[in-house]
Design a protein that fits this description.
Elements: H1 11-24, H2 27-49, E1 53-54, E2 63-67, H3 75-84, E3 90-92, E4 106-110, H4 112-116, H5 121-136, H6 141-157
Helix pairs in contact: 2-5, 5-6
Length: about 160
């Protein structure tokens, strides 16, 4: 109801939605979505093979939630260690989490950003190994430095923008 507590249609938002819907109808976008999910499934499988517990036992979409309680590692500490290594994840609560939302017992990992760069299943195995190294040694600056160099190399091979 306008004027009052609701505003009118925002033409820039309508235009953005129209462009997005057009992109979503393309075969390229559908292929990108399939690759994003394929990457997530491979990454999840490698993490589970390394002994990590994933909430729901894997993934059917673009992200996964890793339960870190068996490592005695908080989500906050994992997020910080991975950030130092150049890997972005989010601390995230797990179901029935005993820790506060500011600390958490889990991390959330997604694959859209790496898929957008052009990474495929092979790179997910590499990324999983990097995650495993850092999460198993979150205070080891040698491990973090080595992984950070690997992240740099991977990002150089798959730049955000092609020149």
């Amino acid at each position: 109801i306008f004027p009052g507590i609701q505003g009118g249609p925002l033409m820039h938002v309508i235009a953005a939605k129209a462009v997005t819907f057009q992109l979503a109808m393309s075969e390229d976008f559908r292929a990108y979505q399939r690759q994003t999910v394929a990457n997530a499934r491979v990454l999840a499988r490698h993490l589970m093979d390394a002994g990590f517990n994933l909430v729901s036992g894997g993934t059917d979409n673009h992200l996964m939630l890793v339960d870190l309680r068996n490592l005695d590692l908080t989500g906050r500490d994992a997020e910080k260690a991975l950030e130092e290594a150049g890997i972005t994840v989010n601390k995230n609560m797990i179901p029935f989490d005993p820790r506060s939302p500011f600390v958490t017992s889990g991390i959330r990992i997604g694959t859209p950003a790496v898929t957008t760069r052009g990474m495929k299943e092979k790179e997910m195995a590499t990324i999983a190994a990097m995650l495993v190294d850092v999460l198993n040694h979150p205070a080891d600056h040698g491990v973090i430095s080595r992984v950070k160099e690997g992240v740099r190399d991977l990002c150089k091979r798959f730049p955000i923008y092609l020149e």
